[in-house]
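User: I'm writing a short methods note and want a consistent example. For Amino acid deaminase, I'll paste the sequence; you return only the structure tokens, no commentary, since I'll be parsing the reply automatically.
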Amino acid sequence: MAHPLASGPLKAFPPAPAGITPEALRATQPPLDSLTTPLVSVDQGAIRDNIEAMRGWCESAGVGLAPHGKTTMSRALWLQQLEAGAWGITVATPWQLSVALGWGIPRIMLANALVQPAYLRLVGTALRETNTRIVVWADSLRAVEIMDTVLRTEPAVRPLEVLVELGQHGGRTGARTHEEAVEIASAVSASSVLALAGVAGYEGALAHHGDAASLTIIRDYLTRLAGLDDALRDSYDPRIDSAIVTAGGSAYFDVVAEVLAARHAPAEGREVLLRSGAYISHDDGFYRGITPLGRGGSREFRSAIHGWSTVVSRPEPGLALLDGGKRDFPFDEGLPEVQGVRHLGSERVEELPGARVTAMNDQHTFVELAAGSEISVGDVVRLGLSHPCTTFDKWRALVLIDDVRAERPRAVDVITTEFG
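Assistant:
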């Protein structure tokens, strides 16, 4: 028989015998300070407000939304986005596509090429046995050839819908020229098991700032994408429900709407779909600095994700070491920011002026302290985080709280994720 302590609790949940299980947390809604660190909390109110802000923005801008599910890989959060009117869910990999199929998502866009035979056969089965709308991308003749070859062995009732991806030199994937993209589209149209359904692109890899020069680069690329849509419009397959033009990550969706929104006419079978994903939780770093809502407008997103980490060492003046590190908090788009401290035995988060994160190890974060800072071993530091995608993927379960701004936030639920 296994020892009762052989299997530890979920990260951030206290150990047995006084542990707080996810089930008990939902029932009792304990204060956040009763959980252990490191942990990442997700603000319920901020999630709800961000979803509504994005829904309202898309409605005003005249575009649709297929939010990128890779940000959270959480069925509960995906369903909230769908309930708010999202067209469907975008995924990044064939494996994520399989998760979306398993979760019963009605419309799925794979923002990538699908060339793995095993997953193509899975998609063939889904097209035959479900009503799920599945859309994939292609940026090469070889990708079209692989899809055609594999799917011809699958007696699917419906064709697999394909968007031709247009790229740009120095960007990520995508056909580099208009002429190459048109050739790929012709190959899709020539296949009996594929259906040309529109055009796709990703502008976010072309710039990383919100200055005028960056916006011009984005606008010029999107104008090329619009030109490809014009060139292919008469070739779109009549078997599809609607033709799709899609672009738009979380940094430049305002420019996407500016250039492409006039093409959005669902009643006429044409849809312009953004794929923004990070908006649902936003952050206190990269997206806070580049979000289109920061470039004007009355709506705002607010960060729903925060890190909490205990001081475990004060080895020298001006330095504190926390018990969370790269395995717990994101670091690829900027280090966490110190937002306050909850002293051991206290319930309130207080300011910690002058404190900043200078480095991270796997399981430690280095905090530089201002002279005279009152912070001791056992105190808990609240961190603002940068980049939602590399926050959610570090956690099997994140704690949902009522309001991070409350004097004593309470844990109200647990958000589970599926990252493989």
